[in-house]
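Lab manual, section 2.4: Encoding a predicted structure.

Procedure: take the sequence of the chain (284 residues), apply the prediction step described in section 2.3, and record the output as structure tokens. A sample record is shown.
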Amino acid sequence: MKNISKKNHYIPCFWSANWNLDYLMKLRNNTINHQSPRKVLLHTFGVAAKKIYQKKAENVFYIEYANLSEVESKEDLIELNKVFNNVELDFDIEDGFNENFSYFFNYEDKFTVYENEFKKYLLNLIKYKKINNLEEKTYISLFLYIQILRNPYYFSKFTSMINAKKVSKIHLFLEMEKALKDKDFLFNSLFYFINNEWNIYITKDYSLPLSDFPFIESDSSILICIAPDILLEIEMNGRERINNYMIMNESKHKFIYDQILKNSHFNLVCSEIKFFKFLNISNL
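Recorded output:
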């Protein structure tokens, strides 16, 4: 039987690890070799405790068994096998549903598959600080879309809707997978990001934080810190152009700092302890 992953990282370690400056420099210099992003140390602020810790990336931005659900009926099992035609089973699905056993489905494996689709493009954006073409823009849009799907803030809303209908969380995963497999639906979802103007801002230092809810909204745009020195701003204006190497001004910096702590529910990380002071965190 395959081991079930306990820690489900809604922000993947290969992304958060870049808030360790040594790791980030190695990425940009192509000298990471076999260093695991999961073991990289991060300066982490715990929102509830109001304390700064040093934690490994694998111990930040996760919820235990968030994407695990019990299969409660044979009908659900058959539907799972139909939608996920490569589901790994340890038994014959045609056998009777034995109520003396527990059956579980882990959607975390599917999230990993989707993350591997955009991983190369996200890391290239972090390495080279620019987006070159529509292909790269599309895969970064997939990254943003998957972030929305699995972020605890939105995911809790999805599960609340499922619970209100008094059906298993399995049905949430089924609907997610159907949507991701539906080319028209997925195109429209990604087009929401693609069909707008993208600004890639570069900071002079490495002061941008990463929050457990990384999306920051203004009146006319969505912003997300891609790395400690890279900010992606999507202006919702219907223009498809890309503006690389823009310099962030002080007012935009301040807006990021003011909003990101309000958005954070559990943790946020900075590349160096000194940058937490910009967040106006009291009682430190």
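Check your result against the sample. The mean pLDDT is 90.
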